[in-house]
Amino acid sequence: MKIDTRKIKSDEAVEIYITASVTPNVALKKQANELFSSIRQVLESEGAHILQERVLGTDSALQIAQVVRADVYGSYDDGVEPAWLVVPEGINGQLAGVQVHALSAGGRPKILRSGTMPCGRLVHVGDNDYLTISCIQAPEARQAAKQTQLMLEKAEAVLKQAGTDMHSVPRTWMWLGDILSWYNKFNKTRNRFFAERGLIGNGTVNRMPASTGIGIVPRNGAICGMDLVAVVGPNKSIEYLNAGGNQNSALKYGSAFSRASRVKTPAGTTLFVSGTASIGMNGKTTNIGDAQKQIEESINNVRAVLREMQGGDNDVVQATAYCKTAEAEKLFLNEYGNLAWPTLTAVADICRDDLLFEIEATAAIAKQANLNKQTNV
């Protein structure tokens, strides 16, 4: 297996980003045990607790991983489930890997709930409260658009527990099963919700979170689910890049997200770069039918955003590459397997049928400017 650990430090906290992927052709239970045991070792060595976690794999692989995780984590399992995300079998087999964002800052996070269900974590460091929500969803609403609306309302209710609202959210991830059949309906629902909350609209300074909307379904059969990060602190603590790098505002073609956001986090400054694809300034897909060129342009687009937000390759602490086919995944790994970004790959539908690749990145700039990298294979 491969585990990549990136740490950024301040006097108040250590943030830890873990990207773990499996060794192919190993029994699933053994793969899961290696993954979660290695993650637990990192948590123990740093005195850290999980803030947010995602596990990607086939449905059968996730069933095994869920049992193994609970057994291996022990007391590190605080009841907040990771985002269990169903993807097709990829180049590494049925279990694509795990991503964790953890924090060492003195105490355990407070657990946030949606109704009675643990769904998020809250920590206070310095002047800010920092919170995460993992794969909140609303399967009780049958139609996709209604699930989206209720999912957003549930997230808003959790944010209110921390005395805040959607104006404090720099980053969301939208997990959208069968995305190509209803992405326009999703956008209309999200746009209306954001307009009603004053995040977008005439005369409004747009405060759209950076976001990824990708064709991955949550494991329990809901049509959609959402992860988010929120930071509650001084006014104007979140900066949004609505348009930048090599791309115009996504809102111009009906999708309410910023290209990136920048925010103070417990150990420094975090740059969230949205899911980014081969889309030109005019909002149209480029390099149609050419996966290699789409991959290259997507990566160049992310790098352009990073530069504009005063970051670079060496600041990236976590990335996810979404590949429409196993062939595109193989091409990405062959061409960019040595990319400095710790990247997890997954096979997934992109939001347009002519897009073959999408990639997102999280970059972190420590207060003490000492990014530590540790990779084991």
Secondary-structure blueprint:
Elements lengths: L1 E8 L4 E8 L6 H19 L2 E9 L1 H15 L9 E4 L8 E10 L5 E5 L2 E9 L2 E9 L7 H18 L9 E6 L6 H14 L13 E5 L2 E2 L5 E9 L5 E4 L18 E6 L2 E9 L14 H18 L7 E8 L2 H11 L6 E5 L9 E10 L5 E5 L1
Parallel strand pairs: 3-4, 9-10, 16-17
Antiparallel strand pairs: 1-2, 1-19, 2-5, 3-5, 4-11, 6-7, 7-8, 8-12, 9-12, 13-14, 14-15, 15-18, 16-18
Helix pairs in contact: 1-2, 3-4
Q: What's the quick description here?
A:
The protein is of the alpha+beta class and 377 residues long. 25% of the residues lie in helices and 35% in strands. The chain has a 7-stranded mixed sheet, covered by helices on one side.
Describe the structure.
By secondary structure, this protein is an alpha+beta fold. The protein has one domain: RutC-like (60s Ribosomal Protein L30, Chain: A, 2-Layer Sandwich). The protein is 25% helix and 35% strand. The strands form 3 sheets. A 7-stranded mixed sheet has the order 11-4-3-5-2-1-19, with helices on one face. Strands 6-7-8-12-9-10 form a 6-stranded mixed sheet, with helices on one face. Strands 13-14-15-18-16-17 form a 6-stranded mixed sheet. A hairpin with a 2-residue loop joins strand 6 and strand 7. Helix 1 runs parallel beside helix 2 and helix 3 packs parallel to helix 4. The radius of gyration is 19 Å and the shape is globular. The model has no long low-confidence stretch (mean pLDDT 94).
